[in-house]
Amino acid sequence: MEFNSSRIEEFKDIWVFCEQRHGQMMNTNFELISEGRKLADERGSKLIGVILGHNIAHLAKELGGYGADKVIICDDENLKEYTTDAYTKVFCDVVMDKKPEVVLIGASNIGRDLAPRCAARLHTGLTADCTHLDIDMNNYVDFIETSSTLDLSKTKFKMEDTNLKMTRPAFGGHLMATIICPRFRPCMSTVRPGVMTKGEFSEEKAKACEVEIYPVSIDENDLQTKVLEVVKEAKHMVDLIGAEIIVSVGRGISKDIEKGVQLAKELADAFGGGVVGGSRAVVDSGWLSADHQVGQTGKTVHPKVYVALGISGAIQHKAGMQDSELIIAVNKDEKAPIFDCADFGISGDLFKIVPMMIDSIKEV
Ligand code: FAD
């Protein structure tokens, strides 16, 4: 494949794969575009958003408003609903054609499916589930020679060591691993939703954003799957990532599960429009559905207020909530690790304390 013999210097620009569902942008796109803007400014390169779908051209300016210099639109009827093979083919085609240096993808269900498939097809590496990104421009390496069988470059070349440093939790959250992809391009990374900060929307930037319609070529006969119908789940999913106030419950509610969850709901309501989250212990026990789980294998959140009720504060739970603006913890064990990251800690029985909290908030 011609792509494999490309020289590393040919790869330019920072790309964000921007996920849309039924013409609606996912919030993670704006977080990644805002983060990508910082990386592109540091690197001195362009930031480009790429959207796949059908009748989606109207979404481009929105990305521009958050800092994209340009948006590439891949529009085709076969891209209306996400399918692994159609999206992989089209996204890889554009990457191979335009050669971005960095590709960022949100670690949603779709992103987690698409990214490894594309990385394998592009013969590059992928760092999954990143929580921090950085550009390392300090080192210069002269005349690197690749000996890889993938043969990115058969010849010697001078490489500026401008690697993307991708950081993610490893070994069950016990350490943070910083990973680089020094010899292959693009550097690919999936990024956890909710960890990067969404910037301010600018009307001026939106107007200045360039839009390119990319000519998609898909032969329907090559597609192994076709979506015939989409049936929406009737269940209401909790939106933890967009929530400003989250009241989470842990195994500490085991004495009276129903009442514990009810108290959390009442406290969330008293704060004004809060939502209920939970630890993995609560989800594994079936007391709350999986979409409520906060933590390493659940959602990463940074609300204005995070209340932890009867949650011990295991490292895997903290990994998902410790960047909240204000943390309040209630736990009957005053040595519980959750108090280490709490701004306000109340030691005592949640079944007694939460009703008092609700009353006090209502009085204000
Ligand atoms: P416990 O640790 O059992 O804590 C219960 C707490 O409630 C205790 O501190 C106790 O003092 C307090 N308590 C009891 N009764 C009361 C009462 N009446 N009033 C007040 N306090 C009371 N966990 C997550 O949450 N999210 C994840 O995403 C996640 N991912 C994981 C990934 C891996 C690979 C692994 C190995 C583990 C993961 N875990 C995760 C599990 C994590 O290690 C803990 O087991 C879990 O967070 C514990 O949940 P908990 O705090 O509710 O329960």
UniProtKB/TrEMBL annotation:
Origin superkingdom: Bacteria
Alphabetized CDD domains for the sequence: ETF_alpha
NCBIfam families: AcrlCoAredClosAcrA
Family the entry assigns: Belongs to the ETF alpha-subunit/FixB family.
Boundaries of every Electron transfer flavoprotein alpha/beta-subunit N-terminal domain copy: 14-227
Lineage: Bacteria, Bacillati, Bacillota, Clostridia, Peptostreptococcales
The protein, known as: Acryloyl-CoA reductase electron transfer subunit beta
Species the sequence originates in: Terrisporobacter mayombei
InterPro entries with a match to the protein in the record: DHS-like_NAD/FAD-binding_dom, ETF_a/b_N, ETF_a/FixB, ETF_alpha_N, ETF_asu_C, ETF_beta, Rossmann-like_a/b/a_fold
SMART domains, per database record: ETF
Gene giving rise to this polypeptide: acrA
